[in-house]
TrEMBL record:
One of its GO terms (molecular function) is DNA binding. One of its GO terms (biological process) is negative regulation of DNA-templated transcription. This is IclR family transcriptional regulator protein. It comes from Rhizobium etli bv. mimosae str. IE4771. The keyword Cytoplasm does not apply. Keywords: DNA-binding, Plasmid, Transcription, Transcription regulation. Pfam families: HTH_IclR, IclR_C. Residues 8-70 form the HTH iclR-type domain. Residues 74-255 form the IclR-ED domain.
Length: 261
């Protein structure tokens, strides 16, 4: 671990620890951090305790692994214009938690970031086999339900520019033909929701619905990823909860559906 000549050793260790936590896809344990950073266990433990107290890291579902905490979203808001994401998260928290309880699936809140979607909040399923959703995780827009939804409600020129940048495949089911994607976006906007049928990960499906601001612009998406083939009744139940949660969140933040303008 290289440190600047006139830097602070504690700050350097903290910075490297945060990078390790951010790079971990499903959270990282204390032991794994000790091995990766080659820092004494007691030092890593103290740093984690301090960062947790400040909301910069958090335990994954209350377990032994760590992920980036909600404070990072608040700090990012201070240097990024646009919607107040902290307010959005706080408004979404009870809505998505209640929906997750009813449908026994994990809910995800994501926002558009350039050519990607970024997860800013997740409400875990109370079930025994909850699907892990990484806060801070990113994915290209054309490979998932949330991203396709953002493209569907974007300006035509934005969608055109996105397609012109290339559509790489994540799975054999990813839409990689620009014309096919444009046709899918028209249908998504007409339906008011989007689906992921193993386009982002094999075996993974999802429904996503839009959240609008007071100008009728899409600022976020609510989605539920789930594994396997759902029965028709189960699929309808998940889709209904996603649509209702997104509509409730839009109303809570005084948003306006574009068709209502």
């Amino acid at each position: 671990m290289n440190e600047p000549k006139h830097g602070s050793p504690v700050v350097e260790k903290t910075a490297h620890l945060l990078e390790a936590v951010a790079d971990a896809k499903t959270g990282i344990s204390l032991g794994a951090l000790v091995d990766q950073l080659r820092v004494p266990r007691s030092t890593v433990y103290r740093i984690l305790n301090s960062l947790t107290a400040h909301g910069l890291v958090a335990r994954v579902n209350g377990g032994a692994s760590y992920e980036l905490g909600p404070k990072f979203v608040e700090l990012a808001r201070r240097i990024s214009p646009g919607a107040d994401r902290v307010t959005l998260i706080e408004a979404a928290r009870p809505i998505l938690a209640a929906a997750a309880e009813r449908v026994m699936e994990s809910f995800k809140l994501a926002v558009p970031e350039g050519r990607e979607m970024m997860t800013i909040f997740a409400a875990s399923s109370p079930g025994d086999y909850a699907l892990f959703i990484k806060v801070g995780g990113r994915s290209r827009k054309h490979v998932g339900a949330a991203g396709k939804l953002a493209l569907a409600y974007a300006d035509y020129g934005e969608a055109e520019a996105y397609c012109a940048g290339g559509l790489e495949a994540k799975t054999p089911y990813t839409i990689t033909d620009p014309e096919a994607l444009k046709e899918a976006l028209v249908e998504i906007r007409r339906n008011g929701y989007a689906e992921d049928n193993q386009e982002s990960n094999l075996g993974l499906r999802a429904f996503a619905a839009p959240v609008f601001d007071d100008r009728g612009a899409l600022i976020a998406t609510v989605s539920v990823p789930f594994i396997g083939e759902a029965t028709p009744d189960r699929a309808r139940s998940i889709r209904r909860e996603v649509l209702e949660a997104a509509a409730k969140l839009t109303k809570t933040i005084n948003g306006l559906h574009p068709l209502s303008k």
